[in-house]
Amino acid sequence: MTIKKVLIANRGEIxxxxxxxxxxxxxxxxxxxxxxxxxxxxxxxxxxxxxVGPANAAESYNxxxxxxxxxxxxxxxxxxxxxxxxSESPKFSEMVEQHRLTFLGPTGExxxxxxxxxxxxxxxxxxxxxxxxxxxxxxxxxEEAAKMLKTMDFPVLFKGTECGGGxxxxxxxxxxxxEQMFTEAQAEAEAMTKDKRMYVExxxxxxxxxxxxxxxxxxxxxxxxxxxxxxxxxxxQKVVEEGxxxxxxxxCKEIEQKLCAVLGKYHYRSAGTVExxxxxxxxxFIEVNTRVQVEHPVTEAITGRDxxxxxxxxxxxxxxxxxxxxxxxxxxxxxxITAESPFEFIPCPGRIDQFLAPGGPGVRVDGALxxxxxxxxxxDSLATKIISWAPSREECIRVHKLALMETTISxxxxxxxxxxxxxxxxxxxxxxxxxxxxxxxxxxR
Amino acid sequence: MKDKLNRDKFIFxxxxxxxxxxxxxxxxxxxxxxxxxxxxIKISKNGPAAAPxxxxxxxxxxxxxxxxxxxxxxxxxxxxxxxxxxxxAPVVGKIYVAEKPGLPALIKVGDKVExxxxxxxxxxxxxxxxxxxxxxxxxxxxxxxDGQAVEFGQKLVELE
Lengths: 445, 160
Prior knowledge:
The complex is a heterodimer. By secondary structure, chain A is of the alpha+beta class. Chain A is 34% helix and 26% strand. In chain A, β1, α1 and β2 form a beta-alpha-beta unit. The radius of gyration of chain A is 21 Å and the shape is globular. In chain B, β1 (31-36) and β2 form a beta hairpin. Chain B has two domains: 2-77, no CATH class; 85-159, CATH 2.40.50.100. In chain B, the strands form three sheets. A four-stranded antiparallel beta sheet of chain B has the order 3-10-8-5, with no helix packed on it. The radius of gyration of chain B is 27 Å and the shape is elongated.
């Protein structure tokens, strides 16, 4: 069956971006929104819209019952989850399919398997993909951790198995600190996820964050759409993403082949990202994100492929392109422009007075801003993304800088000045940075 | 009532803006901001000239006089004034006016309903959900038809 109408179970820039592809493919779109978002751009962009609950996301965007009911009453035949909200809920994927709707993402089982860091790590390790040395099973007490530490080098990282975004984790630089750091991390993890299972792993100082974009047909074929470097981070949140990553081509190819083989074995369906840390020329697997990501336009720019379109075509039963058909060309950089004060990182929801988007060859804007729109305080602070492409990284930095300089957003504070500052740093220009670079560089600003 | 209040505010703002503009033009100040309760007025002498590229400053299209800003909280909570009491849909789905097809509707115009009384059924994901009245009073208007799709918060009935 061919998909004719898609409900987008999301908001903001990603919902607008998905609707753009739907329009291109002549597919009808249904937006969902909370009461706080009835004037949001994604609602205006869609062919139809359904209010699914109050401002609180738990009762609206994360309300599985109302989201599926919205698809049913509008006669949508597929649901695209975007990122965040319900995108990584195995239950949602399953329930969507139980209601005979197509879920434009992996199966519930795959989200469960690859979404669990521990399970994913074991799967990757058994496929010969290096992982950060550490516990293979969850540990719950410091006594268990202490046994592991005898065979490990410091510093080590203690982390809650279900935690993300840098919370529920602590670094111990020596054996003396270990117990205290473990206890602190576990308390934070338990408070956050109600789960006290932890793992311990070797802590890599200032590694690069490298990721592979993959996509599968759910029948055993998986291809790689190349790499991205997302090392410019603050508090484990990506700030600038670029691609392709500067990696040894042989290493890159070897990892790509192993990844596609193992994901193919699990019949991985739809888009996904496999994340690694890079240290001293070696890659260590960290996690799989079973969804499209904020930074997917970087890959779209360097491959010339529309990932959302690929997801829909695959769901329609069309064949996956061959790996040899994927050609990486040029370089792309994405900046996340957030509604935050640029150097103090204080959220600034509020009314947009002026918004002038940049333009010109190689420049793309994925956003959901318009003058008069009030960025509500209930959701994340991502206001717009600016993506630039050029034949080389050097030219791309230049094009990107000009694009950011052309951009005007007034009425609220945004991270634009921070983004411009980053592009000016000699370490950024020379590519000499890891995941801790930005926070350190900001301290000496 | 509401209009009069707004007009008073506006007159106040006009006076204030004029006064502040005079202060700015007679002094060396380039910008002045005045805040009082939920009103804030900002006046700057000149918008920046086309900034040279090396400044990296995005060029804001600043008005010489900025109107008083609507406080965020107020703007976020602004809802169209509705005098009539109503009951809204608690879930998204397909609405039914009767217990079963063929049976009479649960309510009709002129009926008296109490808080908690079942007035509709909404089918969501193959599950029937009872819609209970959140108001008591007399039904003056039924705003939905049997079998229609309703969204969260959609007005279903009006009461007197």
